[in-house]
UniProtKB/TrEMBL annotation:
<keyword id="KW-0808">Transferase</keyword>
<protein>
    <recommendedName>
        <fullName>UDP-glycosyltransferase</fullName>
    </recommendedName>
</protein>
<comment type="similarity">
    <text>Belongs to the UDP-glycosyltransferase family.</text>
</comment>
<dbReference type="InterPro" id="IPR002213">
    <property type="entry name" value="UDP_glucos_trans"/>
</dbReference>
<dbReference type="InterPro" id="IPR050481">
    <property type="entry name" value="UDP-glycosyltransf_plant"/>
</dbReference>
<dbReference type="GO" id="GO:0035251">
    <property type="term" value="F:UDP-glucosyltransferase activity"/>
</dbReference>
Amino acid sequence: MDYSSSRKQLHIAMFPWLAYGHIAPYLQVAKFLAQKNHHLYYVSTPKNISRLPQLPPTLCSNITFIPLSLPHVDGLPPGVESTSELPIHKVPYLKKSFDKLETQLTEFLERSPQIKLIIHDFAPHWLPPMANQLRINLVCFSIFNASTNAFFGPPSEILGGSRKSPEDFTVVPTWMDYPNNIAFKLHETVSHKECEDIVSDFERYATVLLNCKILTLRTCYEFEPEALRVLSKIHQKPIVPLGLLPPPLTSVDDKGDENWEALKKWLDSKQEKSVFYVALGSEVSLSQESMHELAFGIEKSGLPFIWVVRKPPLVEEQFAQDMIPPEFEERVSKQGM
């Protein structure tokens, strides 16, 4: 890749996996590159693109959103376009649908000969042959940090090396030759099988790793120098840390928002550093039993709290209400929100 001219504008496609924890960091990278006067083509589905924050006016001319319609597959509920809308056991259907985007993406790239670089995620194992035919270079951007990527190991190991059983992933691998305790817990390796497609995540990631020119990561040298060293050694290709990419701070306009006014007033009545905040993000869906255990633990602590409860995906409203123990809200009405 001849990128010697720093003044040359590059035309780059961005292609994240269909999860907001992937989509948002990819947009941050796109905005950074757009600030350097490169042109970005952000490829995703219409619903996911609509969830993204509005671009600053100064970047609108350098970022083009390319919506691809998510093909139907049996088992995927209508209108679903991201992992946050699905229980984990239905994610394989989303991966099947994602793989069917190959045709639309190929057609777009064939119409866009100016694109010479694709920054992509772990999932499109079918992308390398297409990119090779169109003479487009690939850059893999992993939203995971260097330690996680180092734990996975080289592609030969990911595709079926020494680790055969879930228990094998609960120990630190030999190639991580520095003091660390990085390993999965057994329940993590077992539960991940629920979201696996016929093409495993390991096979997907190993395939794109083998074929990318550069591996970029959500980390920095100050945070993970040893893990970055190991990655350079096992992959034998440029490893580029992009920083930690925290979410941008946004100003909150609370005028006219009664919910925020009530929350702010309640927080102001508490001592500094006395309130604990419980939120599991947009991807984690606990069982009713686990939600009840969490609720009882919060109640028993006696501490003031704010608990953000998300309706489980594909669950009817009346059943969603049962995720919280009966009369819990009444019992903790003076303790938290």
